[in-house]
Every structure is written in structure tokens, then in C-alpha cells.
Design goal:
disordered C terminus, about 90 residues, about 60% helix
Length: about 90
């Protein structure tokens, strides 16, 4: 597997329990490629930091514009408006 393929599919490897052929190939590649290991470490740190902060509250209009922009750029499929809002934890702000 090439580094470019690892970069494209590395998020599949964030869940270490996945046992697909692609994940095995990614893990094999990570065993020999320090650059891809550093990239994976950076991704994991980013996720950890992201989870440690309280997300800012966006006005609904700004949220809707953000969702449309992300969808227009292929970041995720279109969803119905009632499913566009991220689920909130039980925390109060």
C-alpha cells in the first residue's frame, strides 16, 4: 500500500478493532512507514483535543450555511434538516 492510499483511508484505522483487509494493509504499512505513523498519531491527537473542548454554539443560520457548504464540497451526504443538528451531550452550557 502506498502512503497516498494510507492517507485516503487512515480514518478506517482509527478504530483498532476493524479487521478488514484494507485495515490490515494500513497497519502493515504503518509498521514500516514513520511518516504515516506520525500522520496517524497527529490525527489521534486532533480527535482527542477536539473531544476535550466544548463546541461553540452557532446561530441556526450560520449552522445551516456551514452544513450546505460542507455538503457542496462532498464532505458528507445531504441529510434532512431535522438530522442536520449534531447530537448534544447531556452537558449544559
Amino acid at each position: 500500500m502506498k502512503c497516498s492510499e494510507v492517507y485516503r483511508h487512515i480514518c478506517d484505522n482509527l478504530d483498532q478493532s476493524l479487521r478488514t483487509r484494507r485495515c490490515r494493509e494500513i497497519r502493515r504499512h504503518l509498521g514500516v512507514c514513520p511518516d504515516c505513523r506520525a500522520y496517524l498519531t497527529s490525527l489521534k491527537r486532533t480527535v482527542t483535543l477536539y473531544r476535550s473542548i466544548t463546541p461553540p454554539r452557532l446561530p441556526k443560520a450560520a449552522h445551516d450555511r456551514l452544513i450546505k457548504a460542507l455538503q457542496a464540497n462532498g464532505c458528507f451526504p445531504a441529510v434532512s434538516p431535522r438530522h442536520a443538528q449534531p447530537r448534544r451531550s447531556g452537558k449544559t452550557r
